[in-house]
Amino acid sequence: MKKHNFSAGPCILPNEVLIKSSEAILDFNNSGLSLIEISHRSKPFVDVMENARALALELLGLEGKGYKALFLQGGASTQFLMVALNMLEKRAGYLNTGTWSAKAIKEAKIFDDIYEVATSESANYNYIPKGYDIPNEYDYFHCTSNNTIFGTQMKSFPDCSIPMVCDMSSDIFSRQLDFSKFDIIYAGAQKNMGPAGTTLVVIKEDVLGKVSRKIPSMMDYKVHLSKSSMFNTPPVFSVYTSMLTLQWLKDLGGIPAIEEINDKKARVMYSEIDINPLFKGFAVKEDRSMMNATFTLVNEDLKETFDTMLKEAGINGLNGHRSVGGYRASMYNALPLDSVKVLVEVMSELETKA
Ligand SMILES: *Cc1c(COP(=O)(O)O)cnc(C)c1O
User: Fold this and answer.
1) How many alpha carbons fall within 13 Å on the CB side of residue 282?
2) Is residue 153 lining ligand 1, measured as CB closer than 6 Å?
3) Hey, whose CA ends up nearest to atom 1 of ligand 1?
4) How far is the CA of 149 from the centre of ligand 1 (A)?
5) Is residue 100 among the annotated active site residues?
6) Could you say which of 16, 67, 105, 212 would form a disulfide bridge with 62 (CB–CB 3.0 to 4.6 Å)?
7) Which of 71, 100, 101 to mutate to test the pocket of ligand 1 (most atoms within 8 A of CB)?
8) What is the pLDDT of residues 30-50, one digit of tens each?
């Protein structure tokens, strides 16, 4: 039986993407060769890379606006470092909304003092700070659009006169935003786009070239841009599978279409959390994430019963992160509404048992 996969990452991918990518492992485009045993410089793979880069910009509505897309390695965690290396000259402002923001700040601090414009750390990051100032003499402002671990999400972004950098690892391609507000967007593939191994970086080219330091080649966005994301061997399987997911999303109707489905899933999920007296939501309501719903049992004694019921219903990946506890339902793009309905049924069934 196929499970209902609520895994926070690596996460669920569309079934047709899994089928096509596994076929390409055996025989890529009827070439008699596997996708992973051909040269990355061969035309069939260069086409994959170019298609993936173009699809990313098209879906974000950033074509022809001075942006370029890269598929790099090292995960979003390497971007914490690369952003600072490429952009930080004197000082930068960071919004600290969770574990991933804090890790981004830690890496940037290797280069200079970082100014935390605001933080919700003392509330264990259960809300998104608002109404902070971003000094306009800073090199850039960095934020995290969706806090995967705590289940909060930025619903709006500040108007910023300095470059805005955003870690969108866990909600990219999930909702409509004016993506042209951002100068650098990065996202590890494994939350909403593909298998682990590649990281999408979307860059407005004119923000680069303003720091005085020497940047090692692999860390230099300009080097990767000048080589069309092929400076060294790219993670071919991860890029190919990401391309398939982006094509799947485009065929579905793009971000507006998936946002409607994601909205529905989140509404079904949160209304059960609110209505069922056995459960309590973690994040404050106005900042709740459409991607990761975090909640706990009011009475921990029911944990064993609930966990058994989840297992029997074929529900996978619902355990909360250790820094929050309880449960986390990750509802990324490829998760069907039906899976959320199954989960919600189990939750209400627990109420009749308790
Ligand atoms: C998972 C995650 C990361 C870390 O990604 P890696 O690819 O494992 O380095 C960073 N930021 C956010 C928001 C995440 O959800």
Assistant:
1) 27
2) no
3) 169
4) 10
5) yes
6) 67
7) 100
8) 999 999 999 999 999 999 999
Evaluate whether 25 touches 34 at the Cβ level (below 8 Å). yes
The pLDDT, as a whole number, for residue 50 is 98
Ligand 1 atom with minimal separation from the 190 CA: 7
Residue 113 confidence (pLDDT) above 90: no
Residue 340 to residue 194: CA distance in whole angstroms: 21
pLDDT of residue 353: 85
Per the annotation, the verdict on 167 as an active-site residue is: yes
Shortest-distance Cα residue to atom 2 of ligand 1: 169
Active site residue 191: yes
The answer to whether the predicted template modeling score (pTM) of the entire model surpasses 0.90 is: yes
Please work out whether the CB of residue 76 comes within 6 Å of at least one atom of ligand 1: yes
User: What is the position in ligand 1's atom list of the atom closest to the CA of 199?
Assistant: 7
Average per-residue pLDDT for the chain: 97
Contact 164, 182 (CB under 8 A): yes
Categorize the per-residue pLDDT at 21 as very low, low, confident or very high, splitting at 50, 70 and 90: very high
- Which pLDDT tens digit goes with each residue over 115-146? 999 999 999 999 999 999 999 999 999 999 99
The sheet carrying 67-72 orders its strands as 67-72, 199-204, 184-188, 164-167, 141-144, 92-96, 114-119
